[in-house]
Every structure is written in C-alpha cells, then in structure tokens.
Write a structure and sequence with these properties.
Strand content of chain B: under 5%
Number of helices of chain A: 12
Helix content of chain A: 25-40%
Number of strands of chain B: 2
Distance between the termini of chain B: 38 Å
Number of strands of chain A: 10
Largest sheet of chain B: 2 strands, antiparallel
Strand content of chain A: 25-35%
Number of helices of chain B: 11
Largest sheet of chain A: 6 strands, mixed
Oligomer: heterodimer
Shape of chain A: globular
Shape of chain B: globular
Helix content of chain B: over 70%
Structural class of chain A: alpha/beta
Bound molecules: adenosine-5'-triphosphate, magnesium ion
Strand order of the largest sheet of chain B: 1-2
Radius of gyration of chain B: 22 Å
Chain lengths: ~280, ~290
C-alpha cells in the first residue's frame, strides 16, 4: 500500500517534467537549516521562465527562507545553511565561484515592508545603478525615468524626485522598490508578500504591476492572499509545515491546483478549511 | 499632563508625580550650579580674561594659554578617538557576529575601561606615553591619554547607533547587489550619524571635564604651548589649581569654570546643529 502512495506523492511534490526542461530556476533537494533546526525539508521545484510562480502556505512553513535561498540573501543570516542545489540557468549558485553581486543583479528581491533607502526618490535608483557601473549621468537619468514610468509612478513623483522617498505612501514606496529592482534589468524577481503591508487599493495597483512583468521576466511571489495567487500566477506551489519543518505538498498549474487539487491537504487549504 | 484616560488609578498618579518631581530636581540642580557660576564668575569674564596670560599664579590675568592647551589636547584626543573608534565600532556591529568570542571580549574590555577611575588612566598614561614612549609631560601624551578614556564611550555609542539602523537597509543593499562596504558608507553610516555625533559629544564632554588624568600627562605649566610636544595646563586643571592651591583664586576659578561650561554648551549645540542641518541634510536627504 505504501509504495503507490509514495510515487503519487513524488509526482506532485516535484513539478511536472515538462516544466523542468525550460526551468529558469531549479531547486534540487534544497534544504534549509537555522542552527541545528531544519526549517525546510529537501525540496525539488522547477520555476518556469518568464511566467509568474506563486508560493502559498501557512505561516512558518519556510516560504521566505526558500525565497532568500534563491539569491543567497540567507548568507548574511548567522547560522543559516542551505543544502542541496539551487540552479539558475543551469548553473548552481551555491558554488564558491559564484559572484554574489552579479547574482543579485540578475535575481532581484522585493520585501514585505517597502524598504526604500533614506535618500531622495531619484537617488534610491541612482545609487544601485552607479554601483553596477552606470557611469554616465545622463544614461542613469534616462533609466530612472524609464523604470519609474514602468511602475506607473512618474506622474505622481516627477516634480519631487529630489524629495525623501519616505514622504511617499506605502504603496508608492513599494512601487519605487520595484522600480529600483527593475532598473538593474533582473531576469528573476523574487517578491516576499509584496502587497501584505498595503491597503487594498495600493495592493491592486502593485498586483497589476506584477501581472505586467509576465513574459518579460520570471516572477516568484510569496503570498498569503489565495485570491491573488489565483488571479496573477501561472503556477503555484503549496507548502505545509509538519513538526516545524516546511515541506512541499503540491505544485502545478495554478488553475488546476485550485480547482482539482490532488492532495486532500491542498483541497482543504485552498477551500479555506485549513491554515 | 498626559492624556486623562492613561492615568487611571492612584498608583499611576503617584508614579507620574514622582517622575515629574525627579525631572524638576534635575533641572533645579543644573539651574543652581549655573546660577552659582554666573553670580560669582560672570563679572570676571571678558575678552582680556579669555586671551591674556595668568599673573600671580592665576589670581589675576586671564586663561589664554589654558584655552589653547585645552583646545590642542582635545584636538589630539579626538583625532585619535574618532577614526579608531569608528573602525572598531564598524567591526563589532557590522562584521563580527554578535556572539563571536573576539567581539564579546572587546565589548567586555570596553565596558571595564568605561568604568575605570580617571586616576588609573592618568597613571597608565604617565607610565606609557610620558615615560615608556618618551613623550614626557606634553599635549601629545595628555591627548592620547584622554583618547584612551573617551574611546570606550565613543565605541559603544557608535556601535549602538549602527545597530539601531534598520536591518532592512542592509538587506535592501544586499538584494540590489551592492557591496557591503558601499551600503555601509552610503546608507548605514549616514543613518547612524546622529548617534555617532552623540558619541562624539560624550567623548568631548569626558575630555573637557578631565582633571586627574591630565595632571600626570599634560602637566600643569601655565605657559602658552608652542608645540604639541610642550607641556600645557588644561582648563580643568587650572580650575582645580586655583580652587585648591591658590588663596584668593576663587574669583578666577569661577570665571574659568563658567568658561568651561559655556564651551561645553557651545560644542553640544554645534554638534546638534551640524547633525540635523548640515551633514545630515547633505548626506541623507538628497
Ligand atoms: N533568521 C532566522 N533564524 C532562525 N530561524 C529562522 C529565521 N528565519 C526563519 N526562521 C525559522 O524558519 C522557519 C520558516 O520561517 P519563514 O520566515 O521562512 O516562514 P514563512 O513561510 O515565510 O512564514 P510567514 O508566512 O509568516 O512569512 C520558521 O520556523 C522560523 O522560525
Ligand atoms: Mg515570510
């Protein structure tokens, strides 16, 4: 009895084989530890190119930890260790030779709390651009305008680019953070609950912004808002936490996962009975 | 008065009254000292008092050489404290893990140093800078001794200031592929500047007030110093000397003390202004 059950579980906790062919980002037996505690069980997951991939699951199941593992932001956390492989475009990012600066330029991150620097709106984007070798001031100017337009913020801020970014509303700050990440022309954008600190209207604006990124870059978005995951994402991975250890329960096309989940746990969660 | 609804029971009211009384007590002590100094010292303060050399062991004349000595000692002390302290604080707050044995050891050492009586620093400075390094009784050796005293205060204040900078700035810098050095220089240090300035003020306060350590290191010769290797009498040493050893010196002692207090308030105000209007604006807001 246990064997068929096992294969069935395998089938749905790794992504469909068709996906991994064109996978942009690929986790292979990735496990995450804090000190001696394992926060994420060995997970295998493929994230397809230029689509929107959402990660859902209850609090504490390791969603943020996994997201941070995808551009090695975990490195700064004392006692955090990542085992297994995280493969970007066929290359393991956890090798000694990985250039972290380049990795993070290619794989950007948006946090739950908007975190603009204590600088002017303009300099928030100017500073990282300069850091990445944009020496020409006029080219940086152009770039700044372009990305601020892309996030739909231009008309709101064009007259106060030199004012502190802290004077913006929360939703505007979050869009500025997206603009700042887009300025570096990343291929993957990781977003950790990008709307959960925002009011419903700002949240809708940021949500539309994410949808607009589809086909241009790969977006991995963690969200507690199941409706949002369903509206915006092409694929969804559902995580659960067992004995304080997160594990992947089911992964697949969003519509399928919400309408015809294979696992009972998934069905209970997406129907709001658990979690 | 706090909002009515926050004061509900008698115990709240008692605590509120007690803390209010404590605040008034503090203000009163400061006002009394200031009043005393102004009453006996203000008449003696004049341009010639600030610039002239003392006569008759300080009973007459001014405090010109002491002001210059004090300034030079302070300069040497800060020139040593600020760069050294800044590097140490950055290492402890930004680079070493909080629990690293080395950082823990450094933190304990600094706390012990901060609580050490100044006479011990004086003896150490005398033995190390004056005798072992051959600096003699000089502004160098006084300034460096003060640096040893001010360093623990400054490092701990700066470390706290750095730790209070939101972690999200560093995470943001990391996530944008900025080097940690760049994030530190462009974002973290400017954000910590008000706290660092508070550390500088603490250091200056401790340095200006110091008497015991300086008697053994920069000496008590009341001539105008011609070089940093000359001995020089600090203002606080001068006040001590006038009050303790010179009969009839109390009028000038009061005037000198008033000058010292004025200097402290001036430096304090300057640092606050610089932090909020000058440096801070330029670094942060644009
Ligand atoms: N810096 C850390 N140090 C130690 N343990 C941590 C750290 N960050 C996360 N953890 C642990 O790892 C587990 C997963 O945390 P994580 O933040 O990844 O969950 P999450 O799914 O993002 O939760 P939420 O939905 O609340 O954001 C938790 O048990 C948490 O206690
Ligand atoms: Mg999280």
């Amino acid at each position: 009895m246990t064997t068929p059950n096992f294969t069935r579980q395998q089938e749905h906790t790794t992504c469909p084989a068709a996906l991994s062919v064109n996978a942009h980002l690929h986790l292979e037996d990735t496990a995450i530890f804090y000190g001696g505690h394992q926060a994420l069980r060995e997970t295998t997951l493929s994230i397809p190119r230029k689509l929107i991939f959402s990660i859902i699951g209850p609090s504490g199941c390791g969603k943020s930890s996994m997201l941070r593992a995808m551009n090695r932001l975990n490195d700064r956390i004392e006692g955090c260790a990542v085992r297994g492989r995280v493969v970007l475009n066929g290359e393991d990012i956890y090798t000694a030779g990985t250039n972290l600066i380049q990795l993070r330029r290619r794989v950007g991150m948006i946090f739950q709390q908007p975190n603009p620097f204590p600088l002017s709106i303009e300099n928030n984007i100017d500073l990282p651009l300069r850091e990445h070798g944009w020496h020409s001031r006029s080219k940086r100017r152009e770039r700044i305008e372009k990305v601020i337009r892309e996030v739909g913020l231009w008309n709101e801020v064009k007259d106060r680019l030199r004012q502190s970014a802290f004077r913006l509303s929360g939703g505007q700050q979050q869009r500025l953070c997206v603009a700042r990440a887009l300025a570096l022309d990343p291929e993957v954008l990781l977003m950790d609950e990008p709307c959960s600190a925002l009011d419903p209207l700002s949240s809708a604006v940021v949500e539309d912004l994410i949808v607009g990124l589809r086909d241009r870059l790969t977006v991995v978005v963690v969200t507690h808002n199941l409706g949002q995951a369903r509206r915006i994402s092409d694929y969804t991975a559902f995580f659960w936490s067992r004995d304080h250890m997160g594990c992947l329960v089911e992964c697949g096309e969003t519509e399928r996962l919400f309408t015809a989940p294979v696992r009972d746990l998934t069905a209970a969660y997406v129907n709001g009975q658990r979690g | 008065m706090p909002h009515e609804s926050t004061i509900s029971c008698g115990r709240d009211r008692a605590l509120w009254a007690a803390s209010q009384a404590a605040v008034w007590a503090v203000v009163l002590v400061f006002a009394l000292i200031l009043f005393d100094l102004l009453r006996y010292g203000l008449a003696g303060v004049s341009w010639s008092f600030l610039t002239e050399a003392p006569r008759s062991a300080g009973r007459e004349g001014g405090i010109g050489p002491m002001l210059v000595s004090t300034g030079l000692i302070l300069f040497v002390a800060l020139a040593a404290t600020i760069p050294l302290g800044l590097c140490a604080a950055v290492a402890m707050a930004e680079w070493l893990p909080y629990r690293a044995r080395f950082a823990r050891f450094a933190r304990i050492s600094l706390d012990v140093l901060a609580g050490m009586p100044s006479i011990v620093f004086g003896l150490f400075g005398n033995a190390f800078f004056s005798i072992y390094l051959g600096m003699g009784l000089s502004i160098w050796s006084g300034g460096l001794t003060l640096a040893c005293m001010a360093l623990p205060l400054f490092v701990r204040a700066t470390e706290e200031a750095l730790r209070s900078v939101p972690e999200s700035y560093r995470a943001g810098g990391d996530a944008l592929g900025m080097t940690r050095t760049r994030t530190l220089l462009r974002i973290v240090l400017p954000s910590a500047l008000p706290g660092i300035m508070a550390g500088v003020i603490l250091a200056i306060g401790r340095a200006l007030a110091e008497t015991a350590a300086l008697i053994f290191t920069s000496g008590y010769v009341d001539r105008m110093p011609g070089a940093l290797s000359d001995s020089g009498r600090a203002l606080s040493v001068h006040i001590y000397d006038l009050a303790m050893n010179v009969t009839g010196g109390s009028a000038n002692a009061y005037s000198s003390a008033l000058t010292l207090i004025a200097l402290l308030i001036l430096i304090n105000g300057m640092a606050v202004w610089l932090t909020h209007h000058g440096l801070y604006r330029r670094l942060i807001k644009t």
